[in-house]
Structure formats: C-alpha cells, structure tokens
Amino acid sequence: MRLHPVGPLLTPRLAREDVSVGSDDIPAGTRVFINAWAIGRDPAVWEAPMEFRPERFVGSSVDVKGQHFVLLPFGSGRRMCPGMGLALRMVPMILANLLHAFAWRLPDGVEAEELSMEETFGLTVPRLVPLEAVAEPKLPARLYAGP
C-alpha cells in the first residue's frame, strides 16, 4: 500500500486559508493535489524507500488509517475512502482463504527474478505486466460428520 497505492493522487483539496508548506506558500482557495505515490517513495520520509521491508512497521505508530501523513493508502479526513473498513477486514480474510485452499506457483518457465513490478500511470496504478499465477487446489478437507 506504500509503494504501490491504488490511487496515486488523493481527492483534490481546497486550501481554506493561506498556508506555508516547507518553502512553498499556498494561498487560500488553491486546489491542492496530494501525491501519495511520491510520499511513499520519499527518502526523506522512509529509510530505503524502494525496499519491501514489512518489519519497518513493527513497533511503529504509523498506520494506514489516515492519521499519519506519511502513509495514506486510503486518504485522510472527510474525503477518506469510504471502503477502508471493509477492505481492512475483507482483504486479509479473502487472502487467507485463497492461501488455505490453493497451492500457488508461477507458470512453467517463469522464474521469480523475471517478475516486473513496473507500473503504468492513470487514474489508478496498475502493473505494466500483469501477474500470472497458477492455483492448484489442495486436497479437499473431509467434512465434519460429528462424533
């Protein structure tokens, strides 16, 4: 969610009053676009920003719920994604079910080193080369018949 946000630009905001951000002055009434894609890759904010290191969040107060402005996969404030609660509950459950029910592998002849994480830009940020994976059903579990 940090390196590859679904929406690179958050919903536009309107500055209600004159404000200074860093060395920039933003007058009241200016439409402001927040670039979540750039924030997630900023070396001033993240140590080794291009590395996938989930352990960086262990013991950290940074979360995805919009209170820390260095990680905004769902936005923040009034214009926060209304589906955040559903996504944070359903995605782990669906992923766990898929991992439990299937054995996953890459197609024949494809090595993990060949996978590309390059993106193409638009309203959302899809992968340039889609990921293809082969799902092989695990043996069916026996139904519980009772005692």
TrEMBL record:
InterPro entries: Cyt_P450, Cyt_P450_CS, Cyt_P450_E_grp-I, Cyt_P450_sf
Cofactor(s) annotated in UniProt: heme
Binding site for heme: 81
UniProt keyword list: Heme, Iron, Metal-binding, Monooxygenase, Oxidoreductase
Coiled coil: none
GO molecular function: heme binding; iron ion binding; monooxygenase activity; oxidoreductase activity, acting on paired donors, with incorporation or reduction of molecular oxygen
UniProt similarity note: Belongs to the cytochrome P450 family.
Protein name (record): Cytochrome P450
Source organism per UniProt: Miscanthus lutarioriparius
Organism ancestry: Eukaryota, Viridiplantae, Streptophyta, Embryophyta, Tracheophyta
